[in-house]
Design a protein that fits this description.
Bound molecules: flavin mononucleotide
Order of helices and strands: HEEEEHEEHHHEEE
Shape: globular
Number of strands: 9
Structural class: alpha+beta
Helix content: 25-40%
Radius of gyration: 20 Å
């Protein structure tokens, strides 16, 4: 790398985050910021990093897409037998992270995941494009595949055996709902004196709000 990364920096000056003005309910505060991210024209504001860990605490992280968000939690879909699926089955503690650069905002969400109900996962799977449905069947996600041709041949074969509109949801594929106990809303500020407001709850109802040092 020729560039001096030490000189790469941005001073954040767009907005502030005030505990007197935020919503007392972190789900509503999330909705507000999510709407603003959409209005800002971000391509995939629902792209988020998902961190999981194995039973001895070794972490792993990858991007997934948020497919549902309400007071019950934050939903994403994946393969139950993938690395994340195996980790979450043994250790349900997980964390989500959104970084919306255009708004100089970060949101961190932590809690435990539970598998979403079968009918909910079925309905979402049925709403996916045909190609994505075939792709879910064709990919033994996170396992080694000899080469790309194997994957594509598998997909072509599945297209012959599963007509469009008639692809059932694989039993190894479904949704997870992360039920939060902690949110952090981060707004970049000038000179690294950023605003950080953390919401915590034991029961998911009464949320305390505290400011953290940046
Ligand atoms: C923007 C973006 C969105 C993604 N969305 C998903 C998703 O919703 N579900 C999923 O299983 N993988 C998604 N992926 C792929 C994952 O990042 C990852 O490669 C895959 O799930 C395997 O991860 P694992 O081996 O840790 O289980 C996405 C990748 C990117 C870059």
């Amino acid at each position: 790398m020729t560039e001096d990364l030490g000189k790469l920096r941005t001073d954040y000056q767009m907005a502030g985050l005030d505990e007197a003005e935020v919503d007392r309910d972190p789900f509503r505060q999330f909705d507000l910021w999510f709407d603003q991210a959409r209005e800002a024209g971000l391509i995939e504001p629902n792209a988020m990093a998902l961190a999981s860990a194995d039973p001895v605490g070794r972490p792993s992280v990858r991007m997934v897409l948020l497919k549902g968000a309400d007071e019950r939690g934050f939903v994403f879909y994946s393969n139950f037998e993938s690395r994340k699926g195996r980790e979450l089955a043994l250790n349900p503690h997980a964390a989500l992270l959104f970084w919306w650069d255009r708004l100089q905002r970060q949101i961190r969400i932590e809690g435990e995941v539970a598998v979403v109900a079968e009918d909910e996962a079925d309905a979402y799977f049925a709403s996916r494009p045909y190609g994505s449905q075939i792709g879910a069947w064709a990919s033994a996600q996170s396992s080694v595949v000899p080469d790309r041709r194997v994957l594509e041949d598998r997909a072509r074969h599945l297209e012959r055996t599963h007509a469009e509109g008639r692809v059932p949801r694989p039993s190894f594929w479904g949704g997870y709902r992360l039920v939060p106990t902690r949110f952090e809303f981060w707004q970049g500020r000038t000179s690294r004196l950023h605003d950080r407001l953390v919401y915590r709850s034991r029961d998911g109802n009464d949320w305390t709000i505290e400011r953290l040092s940046p």
